[in-house]
């Protein structure tokens, strides 16, 4: 079985990003450093060995996140605050949309006599059902991004660096 360097590098990135202590930009820099170390090691080692030795020299995910946490002790809270804001914005946008979809479904189902009681239940429990539907929608969106923190982190970094799209998104949320 041959060594898949791209898959190994992807796994290395994901293992670092999933621990939550570094930004995507910092992991990009670490990956550049990994490639430089690996390039020097390829003169003496097989590709698979060179990659894993370079990854160990750059740092294991545990060591890297621990060292970065010493420099930025509040980074975890900042990341949690970003996720909370994303969740709040999603609830402002998606819950009214889910509620409207449920009301439409109830109106359609109410026209069918054998299942008209289902429409009454949907109307009665519309708000909690809308939150559940919005949560399912959020999970689907995150899964579509590949279940990687990279996509969401890049989006948050983009919104932090470019205030206009972020303000526009916040305005849409407030209007919704």
Structural shape = elongated
Q: Approximately how much helix is present in the residues?
A: over 70%
- What's the pLDDT, averaged over the residues? 81
The major sheet is characterized as: none
Task: Tell me what the structure shows.
The chain is mostly helical and 176 residues long. It folds into 2 domains: 5-71; 75-175, no CATH class. 82% of the residues lie in helices and 0% in strands. The protein has 9 helices and no strands. The model has no long low-confidence stretch (mean pLDDT 81).
Structure described in brief:
This protein is mainly alpha-helical and 176 residues long. It is built from nine helices and no strands. Helix 2 (24-41) packs across helix 3.
List the main descriptive attributes of the protein structure presented here.
176 residues, mainly alpha, 82% helix, 0% strand, elongated
Topology, element by element:
Elements: H1 5-17, H2 24-41, H3 47-58, H4 61-71, H5 75-110, H6 116-124, H7 126-144, H8 149-161, H9 163-175
């Amino acid at each position: 079985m041959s060594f898949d360097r791209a898959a190994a590098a992807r796994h290395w990135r994901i293992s670092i990003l999933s621990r939550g202590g570094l930004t995507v930009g910092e992991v990009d820099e670490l990956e550049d450093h990994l490639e430089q170390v690996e390039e020097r090691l390829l003169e003496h080692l097989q590709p698979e060995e060179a990659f894993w030795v370079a990854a160990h020299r750059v740092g294991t995910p545990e060591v890297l996140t621990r060292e970065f946490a010493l420099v930025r002790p509040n980074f975890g809270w900042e990341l949690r605050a970003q996720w909370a804001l994303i969740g709040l914005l999603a609830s402002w946008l998606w819950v009214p949309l889910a509620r409207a979809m449920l009301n439409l479904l109830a109106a359609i189902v109410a026209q069918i006599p054998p299942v008209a009681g289902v429409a009454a239940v949907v109307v009665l429990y519309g708000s909690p059902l809308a939150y559940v539907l919005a949560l399912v929608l959020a999970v689907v969106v995150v899964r579509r991004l590949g279940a990687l923190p990279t996509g969401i982190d890049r989006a948050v970094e983009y919104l932090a660096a470019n205030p206009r799209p972020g303000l526009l998104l916040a305005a849409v949320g407030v209007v919704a």
